[in-house]
Amino acid sequence: MQPLDHQQQLFMVESDQLYRAWIDALHHARSYRYGMRWMSSKGRQYLLRRQDARGNGKSLGPRNAETEAVYAAFTEGKVRAKARLQTLSERVKNQTRLNRALRLGRLPSIVGDILLGLAAARMEHDFCVIGTHAIHAYEAMAGVHCRMELLASGDVDLLYDPRRHLSIVTQKLDQGGLLGLLRKADPSFVPSRDAPFRAVNDKGFMVDLVIPARDMRDATDVTFGQDDLVAVELPNLHWLVNAPKHDVVAIASDGRPVMMRVPDPRAFALHKAWLSTRQDREPVKKGRDRAQAVLVAEIVLAHLPTFEFDPAQLRYFSAEMLQQARRTLAGGDGIRLPGIDF
């Protein structure tokens, strides 16, 4: 584990600030995208605010001094929003070049493309990145770089909380579904024939849509459109769904700052440690699970002192699970989790 030098730390802070300003400017500029226009009906003009790409809109009233002022303010605001977005986009491009020069890029570009697509659609809070790629966020939180062999992965898991309203997310995806959004990042993404929860691109990179196991009475598919991916239920993901989430700006391999929502790093470490003990887990994955659990636990203990392994803060885990994870991390690696000693 290598701490970032002072220049790299500075660029990480600037990337975080720039990204947050840029995404806010992008959302603001896109709020003007459907426009406002005058329409005629029965010899009178009315101001129409368009609300979607199909031309649906809402009348704001007949043309008069008040609606003309509304139209003028809208037009002026659109110009200002476009100019602000352009300025911040140029600054992000420049920061991207600087990040690349200092070798800050860690997250695969395809994952960055997907996350930027989610953010542009205002869906950065609807999906949580779990699995190996979440470690890139924990690196960014701690200001360190870890060994790449533990971070390499040919897939990304997007965790969705099925308690959320599907209709709201579906509306954000604008009828294209999650698969449509993935195809904006890479047109070669297609659904897997054998796994309807998975999309695969021409390079073999996979995106899995996963949810926690649900009650047997809840048989409704979690999907966001016709012919879209259908989420697969995985056991014991309820721990990660219920864990606190953190929105972290990491750096993609091409230097772009990208925000990713990830579970609390303590939850990641404990869950990976528990996974490594499962009898039904493939042996080749169990060793990697344990190594990643140890890595993230070390990141938390050494660099994130405000994240205490306090059972009172980890109530979404069972006491039995906490004990098992503690024993796993302590055995052979000697990692002691202060607070989890019951």
Give structural notes.
The structure is a single chain. By secondary structure, the chain is an alpha+beta fold. Among the domains are: 7-101; 264-342, no CATH class. 43% of the residues lie in helices and 18% in strands. The strands form four sheets. Strands 5, 7, 8, 9, 10 and 11 form a six-stranded mixed β-sheet that branches. A three-stranded antiparallel β-sheet has the order 2-3-4, covered by helices on one side. Strand 8 (190-191) and strand 9 (198-200) form a beta hairpin. The radius of gyration is 23 Å and the shape is globular. It starts with a strand and ends in a 12-residue tail after the last helix. 34% of the residues are buried. The model has no long low-confidence stretch (mean pLDDT 93).
Give the overall silhouette.
Answer: globular
Secondary structure tally, helices: 10
Helix content: 40-55%
Main beta sheet = 6 strands, mixed
Tell me the β content.
15-25%
Extended strand count:
13
Low-confidence stretches: none
CA-atom Rg in angstroms = 23 Å
Mean pLDDT: 93
Give the CA-CA distance, first to last residue. 30 Å
Order of helices and strands, N to C?
EHEEEHHEHEEHHEEEEHEEHHH
Structural class by secondary-structure content: alpha+beta
